[in-house]
Amino acid sequence: MRVLVATDAWHPQINGVVRTLEALARSAMPLGSTVEFLTPAGFASVPLPTYRDVRCALPRPAAIAARIEQAKPDAIHIATEGPIGYMARRYCRAKGLAFTTSFTTRFPEYIAARAPFPVAWGYAALRRFHNASTITMVATPSLMAELAGRGFERLRIWSRGVDTRLFNPRRAIDLKLPRPIFLTVGRVAPEKNLEAFLSLDLPGTKVVIGSGPQEAELRARFPQAKFLGAHAGEELASRVAAADVFVFPSKTDCFGIVQLEALASGVPVAAFPVTGPKDVIGDAPVGVLSEDLSGACLGALALSREACRRHALQYSWERSAAQFLEHMSTVAVGAVQQRNQAHQAREDAVLGSLSTVGSA
Fold first, then answer.
1. How is the beta sheet containing 269-271 ordered, strand by strand?
2. What band does 108 get if pLDDT is binned at 50, 70 and 90?
3. I need a surface site. Which of 12, 237, 247, 276 has the fewest CB within 10 A?
4. Number of domains present in the structure of the chain
């Protein structure tokens, strides 16, 4: 099966959506499928009003149509709700093609963290966008329940995975910082709620890996914290494995792949009891979920690093890709066309029978 994924999120961005899509493409190949991408590359772009460090592509409908038709996909998936996603959705609806979408980012909350825009309005727009699809994929059961309560339809689970070879306890390096080391990884932006972590009174050292629009402000406000900047690959894995506790203060993430990366590195998690942590950690003895984030951080110090690693081994990108492809097989363009042709043939047969009976 040849799948085309339309996405507004792509390099040079480094986020969970981009990393998930890259892992999907790698893991789909051994399963006999090819995943290609319709990305912002080649389109004019402008900085987003509320994300000045992120650019937004401005594609023309004809250009989107040309790229889709050139790709000749068996199935189309729309990963984001931006201009590329919207134009791909518009193309599919105009051509009568089935397509799937995925809900990966809580844009209503992200925007509300920066501007006085009602969250309910944002979800109304997203509901309209996604309900036109045959399947909307979500990463966790708790997110599925929440969106169903908001009127989203035809929801299915598409979980996430982790590269357990890259993220491994053996990669730990000596950060030469006072222990215990409480570490967080992610975009340094208001929606990640880093202030809730950095303001805690904890022993040892608080470490932030990542970059973003709030970095200068938080560096100035919390000079005792160590900001290591953005890292990826082995550099990131070695620093994550060096931590004593991974702190996940976000209340707006749909999943939080970084939690799995920490667990695969043998590092327990401290987080709020919200969507994402509730699904990844749950009741397993690999993290502490509490509205008291400080207590969660201290409690996580006592947890088994071996148990964290074992828990992460349950998640694989191969399993994630298999889930995705199973959903895509239900809307593959060829399959839809075959079903339509079969339906038309049955109708013709019935009409032919009626015509015969009527003339007898």
1. 226-227, 205-209, 181-185, 245-248, 269-271, 287-289
2. confident
3. 12
4. 2
Amino acid at the residue 74 = D
By residue count, the chain amounts to 360
Instruction: Read off the pLDDT of residues 202-240 as tens digits, 9 standing for 90 and up.
Output: 999 999 999 999 999 999 999 999 999 999 999 999 999
| Shared-domain flag, residues 147 and 223 | no
216 and 135 both lie in a single domain: no
Coil, strand or helix: which one is 348? helix
Report the helix count and the strand count for the chain, using DSSP H and E. 15, 14
Full domain range(s) for residue 184: 169-312
> Which residue's entry shows tokens 């493409």?
25
Q: Are 45 and 13 in contact (CB under 8 A)?
A: no
Strands 45-47, 55-57: pairing kind: antiparallel
